[in-house]
Model the fold of this input.
Amino acid sequence: MERQQAAILIASIILVVIIIFLIALFTIFQKRKNSLLLQQREAEKKFETAIAETQIEIREETLRNISWELHDNIGQLLTLAKIQVNIAQDDPDKLGEVTETISKSLTELRSLSKLINPDIIKSLTLTEAITLEIERFNRMQFIAATITSNEEMEDLDDKAEIIIFRILQEFFTNTIKHSKASTLDVTVHYDTDKLIIKAQDDGVGFDHTDRTMHSGIGLSNMQNRGKLINAEVQLLSEKGKGTAITLIYPYKKENSIVLEDKID
Done:
């Protein structure tokens, strides 16, 4: 009888311990789950904030470009047209030159109007948006720029396009402002499982092992942007031989957009 009572007591204690253990395990699981959900929401919030900041930066850069083009290109054409009109008043044969200059001004305005759309990436494919930048460089005679691309094999996520465009825009800006380059060549290649974009200038270049230079041209910023969409960003440069950037974006569905690092 005593043995039965002892066995029942021991079994009861073991059952209570098991129940307590299960309750503790369930509590820990719930806390972990809630913590992961909270981290996921925070990551999503940070990602959306990063996208919004990137869109603002693109719009600011676009407005600066529009300002430069209005002043340096279209403004000069209209000034020339005004001079030609004054000359044509005394020499009607010069009216043809006036018409030609005004027609060129209208063409430039039409090209410029494409940039005015604040959601340029949403209304164009990534390749078309990059091509607009290349055309602007040539139109403004900033640099002799070219772009080659194969046919797009897969539609990219809108947010990924925004990030990729901004990374390239930063590289282009560095090329125009600091590289002293005369040529810029861009290749956009859509592979079966990834997008590969390469841009190369023939500027003065720099020692790519110099971390201070990386900071000065914003390489870490470009790489952190790339991490937002699981894209790899590589920058290579050599003094006297120019600078090149390679961006590799795997667009398979399993490679979902994540936020690993906050943009600097």
Observations:
- Confidence is low (pLDDT under 50) at residues 254-264.
- The two ends are 74 Å apart (CA to CA).
